[in-house]
Amino acid sequence: MIPDAQNVVRLAGKISRIGPIKYTPSGMPVREGLLAVPQNHLGKESVGYLALLFFGSVAEQDVEKLRIGSVLKVSGSLWSRDFRNRKGVKMNEIKVIVESFEPGN
Q1: Confidence at residue 66, expressed as pLDDT on a 0 to 100 scale
Q2: What is residue 8's three-state secondary structure?
Q3: Strand partners, 55
Q4: In a designed cystine with 31, which of 36, 59, 60, 85 is the match (CB 3.0 to 4.6 A)?
Q5: 58: Cα within 13 Å, side-chain hemisphere
Q6: Tens digit of pLDDT for each residue in 46-79?
Q7: The pTM is what?
Q8: Cα–Cα nearest to 7, from 69, 94, 92, 71
Q9: Is-contact 93 67, C-beta < 8 A?
Q10: Which among 105, 72, 98, 102 has a CA at the least distance from the CA of 8?
Q11: CA atoms of 56 and 13, how far apart (whole Å)
Q12: How wide is the angle at C-alpha 77 spanned by C-alphas 66 and 96, nearest 5°?
């Protein structure tokens, strides 16, 4: 571990997708979503899409009230993994584990 290292993410963007609540085999509620966030790289503006994971009580909050296109502010941490897909191609996946969220203005 790196001393004093932190994995903290705070984002604001527009909801692109909110999936239905599902449950792990142990019964933990899980929900996935997609957040569209503005990007500006080398003077070019674009939109990036970040995968969101809601676990436990956060997944059970009033996510149903959120609508596609509405602003959402999230706080959490990044989670990543490397894996090989079914065709054997090496892939990388990065998601935001949402610890709290609130509708934006």
Answers
A1: 81
A2: coil
A3: 30
A4: 59
A5: 18
A6: 999 999 999 998 888 876 678 899 999 999 999 9
A7: 0.84
A8: 94
A9: no
A10: 98
A11: 22
A12: 45
